[in-house]
Amino acid sequence: MNTIITIGRQYGSAGREIGSLVAKECNIPYYDKELLTRAAKESGFCEEMLELHDERPTSSFLYNLVMDTYSFGYNASSFGEMPISHKIFLAQFDTIKKIASEGPCVIVGRCADYALADYQNVLNVFIYGDEESKVKRIMSHNEGITAKEAKDMMVKKDKQRQSYYNYYSSKKWGRADSYDLCINSSKLGVEGTKKLIIQAIEDFENCR
User: Could you read off the pLDDT of 25-55 as tens digits, one per residue?
Assistant: First the structure.
C-alpha cells in the first residue's frame, strides 16, 4: 500500500474514529492530535499553543499573508515577523508534508488535502452525517449535555472548521467537488464507512 488518506469530517460524524480504524486495518500511522504533538516538537511551539489555534478561523488579512508566503516562499527573517497564527499554520503544513513523505498514513483534518495537493498518491475523503445521529453521538461522548447543547456544539465546531478550511485552501469545506469521496456515516455506520474507505483505497491503487 502506498496511499495517504486525508479525512475531513463534520463534528459528530465519527470521522476520527473511522480514520483510526482505517489506519489500524491498513497497518499505517494515524495522525489527528498526534499531528499537533509532532508539529510542536519540530517547530519549537508548545503543544498547548498549537491546540489553541487548531482548526480555528483567522482574519482575511492573515489568509492573504499566508497565501503570499506560500506563493513566493518565506525566509527566516520574514518568519520572525509573522503573527503567531501564521507561524502555527506553516508549522502544521510543514509537518503534514514531512509525514506524507515518510509513507502511507491517515491524516484527519487541518487542510491536509490542500497541503498535499501536489501528491499523486492521496485519497481525500469527507465524512458527514444526519443531524439526529450526530447529536446523539455528541451526547454519548459528553455526559450530561442536552440535545440542544449538543446541536449548538456541532454547529459551532463545524463553522470553525469551515472557516479555517475556506480561508486556507482554494476549495470549499464539505462540498463534494472538494474531495474524492464523500460518505454519510449515518447511513453506513462506523464499520460500513470504514469498509467503504478500505475498498476505495484498493480501487484507487489498482487504477494508478
Answer: 999 999 998 898 898 888 887 788 777 777 7
How far apart, in whole angstroms, are the C-alpha atoms of residue 184 and residue 126?
9
**pTM confidence score:** 0.85
Q: ∠ CA(53), CA(59), CA(62), 5° rounding?
A: 85
Residue 95 half-sphere exposure toward CB, CA atoms < 13 A = 25
Q: What is the pLDDT of residue 76?
A: 46
Helices (H), the chain: 15-26, 33-43, 47-52, 60-72, 76-80, 84-101, 112-115, 131-141, 147-168, 185-207
Q: Are 154 and 12 in contact (CB under 8 A)?
A: yes
Q: What is the DSSP string of 17-68?
A: HHHHHHHHHHT--EESHHHHHHHHHHH---HHHHHHTTT----HHHHHHHHH
CA distance 14 to 57: 22
Which is more confidently placed, 92 or 26? 26
- The C-alpha atoms of residue 102 and residue 114 are separated, in whole angstroms, by 18
Domains of the chain plus CATH, in order, are 4-207 (3.40.50.300)
Give the chain's end-to-end CA distance (angstroms, integer).
Answer: 12
Which residue type does 109 have? G
